[in-house]
Amino acid sequence: MGIVTPGFQGRPRSAEPALPPGQYLTEDFPVLSAGPTPKVPLDTWEFVITTETGEEVRWSWAEFTALPQETPTVDIHCVTRWSKRQTDWQGVSLDVLLDGVDTEATYALAHSYGGYTTNLPLADLRGGRAWVAHRYSGRDLPPEHGGPARLLVPHLYFWKSAKWVRGIRLKTMDEPGFWETAGYHDYGDPWREQRYAGD
């Protein structure tokens, strides 16, 4: 004789997917920056990809915004422990920007107006996983969130999504960026809780 009542289903499971470990959900979009917000006029803005041999591919604002656009909806996760679900962006995929760039590099170092840098494996910028985003929630990206354009790499902690991005230098060897030099994890996978060096 069984001891389970027929039809008993137990506690209902949440339809919401789990957050990465140590994260809490927020409806806000907290503003965190390592320094002052730079003012970047659109008539002088440019985005430059520099290969390991020094060759450059560059776009003005008009050229950049004329490229094919994508509208990813993604969850984002900050190392300070907040997560925000279903954020809506518009931008240009790194697959588009890297198309035709001749490189043997395996790493990238993103550079921002204001001097910020962060490093990533080049593979993490490809395959539909990264964008240079210039609109958020249907509006131009505000300066406090990285406007006019920021890197968007949502599968890593958000410090890897460099605000005010101005270019990417392709490299054959890894080079730590601003926070990585200060003790943050070199990769920053939120699902493995890679917040600091040694995690």
Automatic annotation (TrEMBL):
Q: Please indicate which superkingdom the organism of origin belongs to.
A: Bacteria
Q: Where are the transmembrane segments?
A: none
Every Oxidoreductase molybdopterin-binding domain range: 35-179
**Region (Disordered), start-end ranges:** 1-21
**What is the protein's given name?**
DMSO/TMAO reductase YedYZ molybdopterin-dependent catalytic subunit
| Organism listed in the record | Micromonospora olivasterospora
